[in-house]
Specification:
664 residues; alpha/beta; Cytochrome C Oxidase, Chain J; Catalase HpII,  Chain A, domain 1; Hemocyanin, N-terminal domain; 4 domains; ten-stranded antiparallel beta sheet; six-stranded parallel beta sheet; 17 helices; globular; iron
Length: 664
């Protein structure tokens, strides 16, 4: 009800704002008619002088801009970042300079491979891009929900994207990596091995953008006022923890609600359940660049948190939805080269290529070099330079001077020295021959893939194994399947043997030495130290009469749980309102279920049992009020409980993977 009132008030606010405005053309000409084109007689042809028709139709014909080549499917929100304290010992960035300092932000989440019309819940990496509107200019932290990437050098990015996109001869499959060209690329570019392990894990099917980590992926530099530099990796840690779908659930959600993630984020913000993420950094002093058994500039490697601990710098809260999806979410332009003093770059070859590619992309998508003047991209601080003209120019520059140096305008705009906040690149001595090659430190493709596998809990290993079998099983080429199995053998012989058996290939994995390294990094596991919570989780309550459920609903909502009522009909049921019938609701869209009634009608009761079965198969919490409303076999299973307190505890656990015969 509160949400309905809020939406009603918003509508009234918009209506008041627009109520007395006259309809005009884009030139401000008031129009007396907008229903009919100008014709010769009421049944005659439309005539060319109808400038209003031409303006309206031309604008409509040009409303679509090219979608992003990658990260096309996304959603976004506004918020703010608040610094935990003074980080001036590591960076001169002012937005990190004092406790409590707040900076506006805009965040866009996205899938990588699919087109704008694809589903949210597909197996894919997710983009996590943040624009900080700082007093020193915009800073863009452009990352993913996985800390490593498929390739080491940006020159291979077009190859990777071509391989994972729908195959060119038939434009199939959409938003999936389970096809020949992707796995052929992986098998023949084995630097992707580590990323593929993350991709086959539950990290690639997140439950919500609110429950998803973000990583800057690349190695950057932090520089303080004294010129002391640290190599740095940046992380977003969701306050709710990291949670995911199970694969069967993710596939069904793609059909039941392809907008699941964007709806989840939008609804949470509208309900006041603001997503929160802590910004943390890993720091390596320059003198320790070569102190590790991995190359810190290699984007296919993590810095294990056990070796390079996290330092938390602040918290981001997303508290406002966009007003217009196109104007904000579609037109926002991120760029890893948008930095502020105190943040600089490393020689990470993937990062170096991104510094070129992002500008090039925005030029084609947003119609020219003035995309920074679009409101969502515009800095909150003043900006002045000698750039002029071009498509979509908004600034009206005064004066006759558009060059530097000059005397006619007293040499303005003036360069700003570093001491007054001017940006200076970190002075790094570089010496070497021009060469197309990679550092020897980049040649190890499997040790961290094994580290990831060794760090997984048994249920995570089971899910990774199933994901490999599904994905490689969709590959038509038996030769590609064989290559993948042999590549996986460098990570785990057990995984390779199971995969080979399931996808029907005989691979010569015995010739590949089996590694005995048992090093682990518990921080990369989702289930080793899970965060328990119930706030903002969505629970379906099956009822028949309102009076039997009102106290239950009130208690759930008091715990911060979002409740939806499901029954055999919608509308008023005594003291409560039914949100859904069994035809309009789907069990895959909920985090838990409470069954408070048994229906006498056999068909309706069958729908209830099907609903329960789906929730059971996906290992979610199930509560019931009396034994007669649930089958005895279910009532004895883990996470299937009687009573409110027991249900809330089961819901906090999230998934109950020790259920027998669940097929999620």
């Amino acid at each position: 009800m509160e949400q309905e009132n809020k939406k009603k008030q918003q509508l009234e606010d918009y209506t008041v704002e627009d109520r007395d405005k006259a309809l005009t053309t884009n030139q401000g000409l008031k129009m007396s008619e907008d229903e009919f084109s100008l014709k010769v007689g009421d049944r005659g042809p439309t005539i060319m002088e109808d400038f209003h028709f031409r303006e309206k139709m031309t604008h409509f014909d040009h409303e679509r801009i090219p979608e992003r080549v990658v990260h096309a499917r996304g959603t976004a929100a506004h918020g703010y970042f608040e610094s935990y304290g003074d980080a001036s010992d590591i960076t001169m960035a002012k937005f990190l300079s004092e406790k409590g300092k707040q900076t506006p932000v805009f965040v866009r989440f996205s899938t990588v491979a699919g087109s704008r019309g694809s589903a949210d819940s597909v197996r894919d990496a997710r983009g996590f891009a943040t624009k900080f509107y700082t007093e020193e200019g915009n800073y863009d932290l452009v990352g993913n929900n996985i800390p490593v990437f498929f390739i080491q050098d940006a020159i291979k990015f077009p190859d990777f994207v071509h391989a994972v996109k729908p195959e060119p001869h038939n434009e199939i499959p959409q938003a999936q990596s389970a096809h020949d060209t992707f796995w052929d690329f992986v098998a023949n570019n084995q630097e992707a091995a580590h990323m593929v392990m993350w991709h086959m894990s539950d990290r690639s099917i997140p439950r919500s953008y609110r429950m998803m980590e973000g990583f800057g992926v690349n190695t950057y530099r932090f520089v303080n006022e004294d010129g002391v530099a640290h190599f740095v990796k940046l992380h977003w840690k969701p306050v709710l923890g990291v949670h995911s779908f199970v694969w069967d659930e993710a596939q069904k959600i793609a059909g039941k609600d392809p907008d699941f993630h964007r709806r989840d984020l939008y609804d949470a913000i509208e309900q006041g359940n603001y997503p929160e993420y802590e910004l943390a950094v890993q720091l390596i002093p320059e003198e320790q660049e070569f102190a590790f058994d991995f190359d810190i500039l290699d984007p296919t490697k993590i810095w294990p948190e056990e070796q390079v601990p996290l330092r938390k710098l602040g918290k981001m809260t997303l508290n406002r939805n966009v007003d217009n999806f196109f104007a904000e979410t579609e037109q926002v332009a991120f760029h890893v080269g948008h930095v502020v003093p105190g943040i600089d770059f490393s020689n990470d070859p993937l990062l170096q290529g991104r510094l070129f590619s992002y500008t090039d992309t925005q030029l084609i998508r947003l119609g020219g070099p003035n995309f920074h003047e679009i409101p969502i991209n515009k800095p909150v601080c003043p900006f002045h330079n000698n750039q002029r003209d071009g498509y979509n120019r908004q600034t009206i520059n005064r004066g006759q001077v558009s060059y530097h140096k000059n005397s006619l305008q007293n040499n303005t705009p003036n360069p700003v020295p570093r001491a007054n906040g001017g940006y200076e690149h970190y002075q790094e001595k570089v010496d070497g021959r021009k060469i197309r090659a990679r550092s020897q430190g980049f040649e190890d493709h499997f040790s961290q893939a094994r580290l990831f596998w060794n760090s997984m809990t048994p249920i995570e290993k089971e899910h990774i194994t199933k994901a490999f079998c599904f994905e490689v099983g969709k590959v038509q080429s038996m030769d590609v399947r064989k290559q993948v199995v042999e590549m996986v053998a460098h990570i785990s012989h057990d995984l390779a043997k199971t995969l080979g058996e399931k996808v029907g290939v005989t691979a010569t994995i015995e010739t590949i030495p089996e590694e005995t390294e048992t090093k682990q990094s518990p921080a990369v596991s989702m289930y080793t130290n899970p965060i328990r919570f119930v706030e903002t989780k969505k629970v379906a309550v099956i009822i028949q009469k309102g009076e039997e459920a009102k106290p239950l609903i009130e208690a759930l909502e008091a715990a911060g749980i979002v409740v939806e009522i499901v029954s055999d009909r919608q509308g008023t049921l005594g003291d409560v309102i039914s949100d859904h019938t069994f035809d309009t609701a789907s069990p895959v869209l909920y985090d838990g279920l409470i069954v408070a009634t048994k229906f006498e009608d056999a068909l309706t009761q069958r729908k209830v049992e099907t609903f329960i079965d789906e929730v059971y198969n996906h290992y979610k919490a199930i509560g019931y009020t009396d034994e007669d409303v649930i089958q005895v076999a279910y009532s004895k299973a883990p996470g299937v409980v009687k009573g409110l307190e027991a249900f809330i505890d089961a819901l906090a656990t999230d998934r109950h993977f020790d259920r027998e015969y669940a097929i999620g």
